[in-house]
Amino acid sequence: MEQVLRQTWAFVFRDFHLTRRYFSWVVVFTFYAVVNSATVVLIGVAMNDRRLTLTLLVGVMLWGMLSVVFQEIANSITYERWEGTLEYTFMAPVSRMIHLAGVSLFSTAYAVVRAGIVVAGMLLFVDIDLSRANWAGLAVVLAVSSAAFIGLGLIAATLPVFSPERGAEATNIFQGILLLVSGVYYPVEVLPRWLQPLSVVSPATYALTASRKLIGIGDAGQLTAGAPLSACAYELCVLTLMGAALIPLGLFVFGRVERWAKRTGKLKRTG
Predict the structure, then answer these.
(1) How far apart, in whole angstroms, are the C-alpha atoms of residue 248 and residue 260?
(2) Domain of 222?
C-alpha cells in the first residue's frame, strides 16, 4: 500500500513541477479566465437582474473548475508527447491505474485552486451577496461531479494517442460540445430540439442544476436561501452513477488504446 501511495504521489509531484515550469503560462491563462468570467457575469449586472447574475456566476464558477479537470486529464498525453516522456511513462513498470490516479488527483487539485482564484478575482468586479449560499453542499456537488469529468477526461485522453497532430484539437471539440449542451449560461430548453437529448447525458447539466439550487435560485427562478443538500438528491444520484460508470469505462478505453499504441508504434513523439 505504501508503494502504491508513493508511486501515485510521484505522478502528482511530477505534474506539479511541470506546471511550475510553465508558471508564466498558468498566470496568463488564469488572468484570462478571471477577465472572461467577469465579462460574462457583468452581463447580468448590466441587465440589473440578480437572478441572471447568479445564474451566470454559477455557470462560470462550476464550468471553470470542471472544464479544467477535464482539460488537464484529456491533455495529459499531449503534454507527455511535447516533453518527449510518453514512451518512458507507458513503458515504466507502474500500473496504469496508479499513473492515471496521480494525473487525476493533480488535475482536480489544480482545478480547485484555479477556480478559487477565478471566483475571488471575479468578485472584485461584481458586488453580489453570497452569504446565503449552501457552500458545504456546493463542495459536495463539485466533488461528486468531478468523478464523472475525470472519467470523460480519461476517454478524451486517448484521442492524442490516435492522432498526435489532431488529437488535442479533438479534445477541445469534445469540451465545446459539453459547454453547448449543458446549460452553462442558459436553460437547456432554449437549445434546438435535436440537441436537447444530449443535455441528459452530460454530467455538467446535473451539476449546474444542483449548484443553482444550493446557491439560492429556485426551480421557478425565484431567489431564496441556498437549498439543503437533500433538495439535490436526484442530481447527486445521477452524478454518482455517472462517475461510477465513466471512471471504469475511461480506464478500460485507455487500456485498450494503450495496448494498440504499443503494438502499432504510436508512442513515438512525432506520431
Answers:
(1) 18
(2) 2-264
Query: What cell was used for 259?
Result: 495496448
271 located within any domain: no
- Among residues 59, 67, 24, the alpha carbon closest in space to that of 39 is found at 59
User: Are 99 and 224 in contact, with CB atoms under 8 Å apart?
Assistant: no
Q: Which of 18, 169, 7, 154 is nearest to 74 (CA)?
A: 154
Please provide the distance, in angstroms rounded to a whole number, between the alpha carbons at the two ends of the chain: 36
C-alpha cell at 146: 468531478
Distance CA 8, CA 76 (A): 15
| Cβ(110)–Cβ(30) below 8 Å | no
Cα–Cα distance for residue pair 137/188, rounded to 1 Å: 23
Domain membership flag for residue 72: yes
Q: All 3 cell numbers of residue 40?
A: 460574462
Which residue's C-alpha cell is 441587465? Answer: 47
pLDDT tens for residues 18-34? 888 888 988 998 999 89
Inter-residue contact 171 to 72 (CB < 8 Å): no
* Contact yes or no for 96/251 (Cβ under 8 A): yes
Q: Is residue 78 part of a domain?
A: yes
Q: Looking at the predicted structure, is the pLDDT value of residue 271 above 50?
A: no
Residue at grid coordinates 459539453: 178
Count the domains in the chain: 1
Tell me if 53 is assigned to some domain.
yes
Q: pLDDT digits over 191-210, tens only?
A: 899 988 999 999 999 999 99
Contact call for residues 154 and 258 (beta carbons, < 8 A): no
